[in-house]
Amino acid sequence: MDEYNSCNYKDLNVYLSLHTGITTSTTNSINRYGLLKLNYIKKHKKQLYRNLPMNNHLTDYLSSVSNECNIKFETIMNRIIIKMLLMKLF
Fold first, then answer.
1. How far apart are CA 40 and CA 64, in angstroms?
2. Could you tell me which residues are beta bridge partners of residue 8?
3. How far apart are CA 86 and CA 3, in angstroms?
4. Which backbone phi and psi does 10 adopt, to 5 degrees?
5. pLDDT, tens only, 73-88
6. Disulfide: which of 9, 24, 35, 41 matches 45 by Cβ 3.0-4.6 Å?
7. Vertex 69, ends 3 and 78: CA angle to 5°?
8. Is the pTM value of this prediction over 0.70?
9. pLDDT digit string (tens) for 29-41?
10. Residues 1-23 as b or e (16 or more Cβ within 10 Å = b)
């Protein structure tokens, strides 16, 4: 963690609460990023694409990719918001 995570910012005109704790679902949900990864391994990693369903790991793999991408996306967006607020304050 660094100084940009888990903080609340108040300004006279702006109140922003950043939620850095990501709640992950216990079900195997596959979002856009998981589907993009599926298309990538279909085209470029054919051996992996054949092996994952045989071992019943395809859904788990795509779900973990989806969760990791959500975490990275939220972290990046939080940093962008903080930088925008700091630029507005100074």
1. 15
2. 17
3. 13
4. -125, 140
5. 999 999 999 999 888 8
6. 41
7. 30
8. no
9. 889 999 999 999 9
10. eeeeeeeeeeeeeeeeebeeeee
Pick from 70, 66, 82, 68: nearest CA to 5: 82
Q: At what angle do helices 32-44 and 58-89 cross, to 10 degrees?
A: 130
Q: Which residue has the tokens 């990864």?
A: 37
At residue 17, φ and ψ (nearest 5 deg) are -115, 120
CA-CA distances (angstroms) from residue 36 to 25, 40, 41, 49, 54? Answer: 20, 6, 9, 13, 20
Mean pLDDT within 46-74: 90
Check residue 53 and give its pLDDT. 86
Locate 11 and state its tokens.
């300004």
Residue 30 CA to residue 39 CA, distance in Å, equals: 13
Rounded distance, CA 63 to CA 79, Å? 25
Q: Which amino acid is at 71?
A: I
The confidence score (pLDDT) of residue 21 equals 39
